[in-house]
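The data are quoted verbatim for reference:
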Amino acid sequence: MSLHTAKIFRRSAWVSVAVAAALLAWARPVQARVKKIVIDTKVSPAFDGATFGDPGQYETLAGRVFGEIDPNDPHNAIITDIRLAPKNANGKVEYIASFFLVKPVDMSKSSHLMWQDVPNRGGRLTIVVGERNYGDVGLSSGWQGDNSGNTVPSEKNDYAVVPVAKNPDGSPITGLVMGRIVNANGVDSKPIVNANPVPYKPASLDTTKATLTTHASETIDGKIGATATIPSGDWAWAKCSATSPFPGTPDSTQICLKNGFDPKLLYQVVFTAQDPYVLGIGFAAFRDTASFFRNATQDDEGTPNPVAKQISWVISRGRSQSGNFLRALVHLGFTQDEANRKVYDGVWPIIAVGDFR
């Protein structure tokens, strides 16, 4: 073999290796991610056209992300019931999450820092005036998928839409749920859990399949005073009123009591519910929404990321319940996406007193 021929051979071999490597990279499975974004509302300029220091005017974009996660990926395996969630043709679990993006109209004047705020009970957030003066970007994105109270999807709040888990044979998953009613003095009231309406509904409105009891007292360390069971015929899953007295109008979200509630008693109902939401997907949705705006150029349909290549740092923050969400986000490992990229440069839990040791 001549020297010239050897050089050609080596060059051809190098090209072949390079092409093969490129083909392998192309064939590598794509990590689950945000596949599509939809911008429902854009206001530009926002805030009544106000100017904020050097960054100038701001605009707001409200919309939704459509994503999917791999139930077998170690980043997601910790999600309760993730393997029981319905899957698409690619074997992925799908979700939808809302977002509210606040950014300078001219992103070249941005600070390139994005605050991802954690909505508390669906309340949409925005960055304050001082942060706009610095050119910061604000992102409020949904994570709560219980579809109750302020997390019911609407144009004014942030939410997640997550699937319902099913048994492998497709049958409903059932389980016991407890709700409480306190300080009630009418004829009907909604059971609550931790000051919020119980998100799960009874599988049956037949009160013989549930138990309603009263507690005369209860200490902080759980010692219960005199208890009594209310006969199933004396209460109903219903809404009652003067025009619709007991047993009232059937309603799976509240209890109507034949003789009315005594505000001196605590009422506790235990019932069988079905169709649990895979709520842990909210952690992945929150993570992947931030990852999309930080890393993606466009979605799978070609819709451009409105802050593409303009975000250098992401800090998430939340107050109270939202702060506890952030502590759990870190504790459970949702700070790295499925492509093993770091999503957050910092988190700021504010007044977050939960213990995640």
